[in-house]
Design a protein that fits this description.
The protein is an alpha/beta fold. The structure holds uridine-5'-diphosphate (UDP).
């Protein structure tokens, strides 16, 4: 008979915790999940306003090329055929994203791939020989000046709150670049939004699991640690260690959401505002993720924000300094005092810019090392 009431206490009811909890339950483990928010689902949680699923913590579009992950989520929920095709507004003119033949036509009037390639070669000529060390150099190297200045620089600098020369180049590699008239933002094999919203996915994952919301782990850490044979912590890794080695930096967001008395405000789920002087980065019109036909609409202006203890940590800032600090926290996590009792995972504990599919992949991988022993 174990001394513990639970095999696992999972701190954080987001996607990572939910996948792990589900798998642990399947394997006969007793699990308790706690979350300081009043609801489960972490950042994929949606709030129903006017019959519309509002992505309360930022727009989420599920996309993956990993068949195992796609099959996994499809056990719980069906996905619709939403394809993300954001439009960028720069000084009142609209451009298709990601960078494709439509964008090149809108930028330069070029009509064929050969014309577009020639134009881009001309644009990149001054930067062709650089070995890109940061996002600005990477963007100029890939596409040249017009594209960078109209569609990347302003958006990126607002988003990250620093000059593009101080941002790691890998972030821009997320943006595909193609010579077809294809506005699909992602190159992945599978894509969509859960029918019925993300809460259906989360609720299905948590079926049969005890989830306590509105509970702050750190206020009763000793009690929770005693309840579980092991603790899976999915919050900020630096906070777990009381920021002993220093704080990891994040970028936060601020959302302003309103109900509008019209049925279609912008004709697309996502419109990016790529100029620096407009303080928000994008306007989300939530109904379009699910082809909604409600009478009203709900839109959210998304403002990038400094991170502090009073707001949410959305994006890890994976530059050299933060990544070096992360390594030291990870070493602590693996030290003899912690490794047998605590496991860590998810966007905040791994301090990685995970998409949802990466999160699920990481959670499934942890279940293999933890539960298949
Ligand atoms: N980005 C940009 N212009 C855009 C959209 C994105 O320059 O109109 C850049 C920007 O640097 C951003 C990165 O691409 O940080 C990744 O954007 P993505 O939309 O993938 O980020 P997320 O949806 O995760 O916020």
């Amino acid at each position: 008979m174990s001394d513990f009431q639970y095999d696992y206490v999972i701190v954080g009811a987001g996607l990572f915790g939910a996948v792990f909890a589900h798998e642990a339950l399947q394997k006969g483990q007793k699990v308790l999940v706690i979350d300081k928010r009043e609801h489960s689902g972490g950042n994929i949680y949606c709030e129903n306003i006017e019959g519309i699923n509002v992505h309360k913590y930022g727009a989420h579009i599920f996309h993956t090329s990993n068949k195992e992950v796609w099959d996994y989520v499809n056990q719980f929920v069906d996905f619709n055929h939403y394809v993300n095709s954001p439009v960028a507004n720069y000084r009142g003119k609209l451009y298709n994203l990601p960078f494709n033949m439509n964008t090149f036509y809108q930028l330069w009037g070029v009509k064929t791939p050969a014309e577009a390639k020639a134009k881009i070669e001309e644009q990149r000529a001054p930067y062709r020989d650089i070995n890109p060390q940061n996002l600005e150099e990477q963007a100029l190297f890939l596409g040249g000046k017009d594209l960078y200045e109209r569609l990347i620089k302003g958006y990126t600098e607002k988003q990250w709150g620093r000059p593009a020369t101080q941002i790691p180049s890998f972030i821009i590699k997320r943006l595909p670049f193609r010579f077809t008239f294809d506005n699909n933002y992602f190159n992945d094999l599978y894509q969509g939004v859960p029918i019925g919203g993300y809460n259906s996915l989360i609720n299905a994952l948590f079926e049969g699991t005890e989830v306590r919301t509105g509970v702050n782990y750190f206020e009763e850490k000793e009690t929770f640690d005693k309840l579980g044979r092991k603790v899976l912590y999915t919050g900020k890794i630096d906070e777990f260690f009381e920021c002993q080695l220093g704080q990891l930096e994040y970028r936060s967001l601020h959302f302003e959401t309103e109900v509008l008395d019209c049925d279609n405000y912008q004709g697309n789920a996502v419109v990016n505002y790529t100029e620096k002087d407009i303080p928000f980065t994008r306007i989300i019109e939530h109904k379009h993720f699910e082809f909604g036909i409600q009478e009203k609409t709900v839109v959210t202006h998304e403002y990038p924000h400094e991170f502090s203890q009073d707001n949410e940590p959305y994006y890890p800032i994976n530059d050299e300094i933060n990544n070096a600090l992360l390594i030291r926290y990870k070493e602590m996590a693996l030290s003899a005092s912690y490794r047998d009792k605590f496991v860590f995972g998810g966007r905040l504990a791994d301090y990685k810019y995970y998409d949802m599919d990466d999160t699920i992949e990481a959670a499934l991988s942890l279940t293999k090392t933890e539960l298949d022993k």
